[in-house]
Specification:
- The chain is of the alpha/beta class.
- The protein has helices at 5-10, 19-26, 46-54, 56-61, 67-78, 91-102, 116-123, 143-153, 173-182, 208-211, 241-248, 258-266, 271-293, 318-329, 354-369, 391-399, 405-412, 470-474, and strands at residues 33-35, 85-88, 106-111, 127-132, 157-161, 188-192, 217-222, 235-239, 299-300, 307-311, 331-335, 346-350.
- The strands form three sheets. The chain has a five-stranded mixed beta sheet with strand order 1-11-12-10-9.
- Strand 9 and strand 10 (307-311) form a beta hairpin.
- The protein starts with a helix and ends in a 25-residue tail after the last helix.
- 44% of the residues are buried.
Length: 499
């Protein structure tokens, strides 16, 4: 697979090659261990797989029922009124129609986040106002600051992903409801709950019931991620009947396939197994976070998703780490250099069973530190930029796939002196610049519930007031690189020979 690494990542418009492409490239019919695609590894159960396999011929031979029939069954399972629900061929189809039908001229979104929330509106000529989440605060979203940002720019639609992808940041239900009410004058508020089934911080975190009572709120939910069936492509949105009906009326009659129908109709018999699968993911997330946090210089951010956002040690290039994990260890990870608001110092790692995690940790030790943990990657100079392109892949191929990152970094630049710290602890985070103060409307303007004067809408095509256009932001990574901080307790580490 090593000789195909560069072409695999260059030949796809997505962030990673598909599993089918990776399996073909392997040449032996076996794909990598997947820490990239965030699905539930414990569902469907083996018995469910056997049941679907036994019905495969019928499933793929005949037309499915109409989307209305499949939606009615899902609503019966979820105890939702069908008139408030629209099912789509994956959440991406619903995001596309939400943009076309309901986003008039501008949309606000915290970054980094799921790429379709930034890319889809830009592709249709909308202004996208991006609110940068700060590394210094662990990428936590401050809803009051976000509301002020929206008011200052006059944005007409707002999105929140809860938990957020890629960092797993979580917002409690009462705070989300307060935000929805504060934004009642906007054209649209979308709460993307695609990963909320994996959260365990709150017993009932969803705002689905509250959304149905409000005229401008949509809640987006995923099924493929929760049920471990990304390939089926099915998800749904919940809103008041008028809003849901507007989207539903634009969807093709057979936009849902026969596999989606079969799974929806078998779910009522497997509720207990599904709940158990989520409990196991919760436990695995804690175990995986603990194991990764023990790696020197690696920062693991708190997450309520079925994935963990990690910052690599200073000097480690994410694209090189990704490609070496794939070519040398057959492990696929999500390198986040192409996410606005992130850089190639960050990986998103999907929660998997402990056996797979142990293999991942062992592979990271070899790639980051050589053959032993503690043979630290030398620090690069303060201000080093971390790319999101393919230069690192070229460097990997020219330097030789077997060369440790430590040796690559040493050849690229001399190491800087490390500043010892008194005890092992997570890598300190460099302060990040806060968003610049935004001008507000005249005092006569109406006050928002957050106490910020509401500004009028910015005309289409005009840059956001006090900020950058989407195109300008697209050309940056949204965060300045963190300076070198020194390695935790570096004086106590063994050298590469183990001494």
């Amino acid at each position: 697979m090593a000789e195909n690494v560069t072409s695999l990542f260059r030949s796809t418009a997505a962030h990673s090659p598909s599993m089918a492409a990776l399996t073909r490239a392997a040449g032996d019919g076996a794909g990598p261990i997947d820490f990239c695609i965030p699905v539930n590894p414990y569902f469907p159960t083996p018995g469910m797989w056997d049941e679907m396999s036994g019905r495969l011929r019928d499933i793929i031979t005949y037309y499915p029922s109409s989307a209305d029939t499949i939606t009615a069954e899902l609503c019966n399972l979820l105890q939702l009124p069908p008139q408030a629900v629209a099912m789509g061929n994956g959440s991406t189809e619903l995001i596309t129609w939400i943009d076309h039908l309901l986003v008039r001229e501008s949309l606000a979104i915290p970054v980094p986040t799921f790429g379709r929330w930034t890319d889809q509106p830009m592709e249709t000529g909308k202004r996208v106002d991006m609110f940068p989440l700060q590394e210094s605060s662990g990428f936590a979203l401050d809803l009051a600051q976000y509301a002020e940002f929206i008011r200052a720019r006059g944005t007409r639609a707002a999105v929140i992903c809860n938990p957020n992808n890629p960092d797993g940041g979580f917002l409690h239900k009462h705070a989300v409801v307060q935000f929805m009410d504060a934004m009642a004058d906007l054209d649209l508020v979308v709460i993307d709950e695609s990963f909320l089934e994996f959260a365990d911080a709150e017993a009932e975190p969803s705002v689905v019931q509250e959304a149905m009572l409000r005229p401008n709120v949509i809640v987006l939910r995923s099924l493929g991620k929760n049920f471990g069936l990304h390939g089926i492509r099915f998800g749904y949105m919940v809103a008041n009947p008028a809003l849901a009906g507007r989207v539903r009326s634009m969807l093709p009659k057979w936009n849902l396939n026969a596999f989606a129908e079969y799974v929806v109709f078998m779910l009522k018999e497997h509720g207990a197994e599904y709940a158990q699968s989520l409990q196991q993911v919760y436990r695995d997330r804690l175990d995986m976070s603990s194991q990764l946090s023990a790696l020197p210089g690696l920062t693991v951010y708190p997450s309520q998703g079925n994935f963990l956002f990690v910052r690599l040690p200073v000097g480690a290039e994410g694209t090189v780490v990704r490609d070496r994990l794939l070519s040398e260890h057959r492990i696929l990870v999500r390198e986040c250099g192409n996410k606005i608001g992130s850089s190639s110092r960050f990986l998103r790692l999907v929660v998997r069973p402990q056996t797979d995690v142990r293999r991942l940790v062992s592979a990271l030790e070899q790639v980051l530190y050589g053959t032993r943990r503690g043979a630290a990657v030398p620090e690069l100079a303060t201000g080093t930029s971390y790319s999101s392109g393919t230069a690192a892949v070229d460097r990997l191929m020219s330097n030789g796939a077997g060369m440790p990152l430590a040796a690559q970094a040493m050849a690229a630049a001399p190491p800087q002196p490390a500043a010892p710290m008194p005890a092992p602890m997570p890598m300190p985070v460099a302060p990040q610049p806060q968003p610049m103060p935004m001008p507000v409307a005249p005092a006569a303007a109406a006050q928002s519930p957050y106490g910020v004067p509401a500004a009028g809408p910015t005309p289409p095509g005009v840059p956001a007031r006090g900020g950058l256009t989407a195109a300008q932001v697209r050309g940056t990574n949204g965060l300045t690189p963190a300076p070198a901080q020194g390695w935790p307790n570096s004086g106590a580490w063994p050298n590469a020979a183990g001494a």
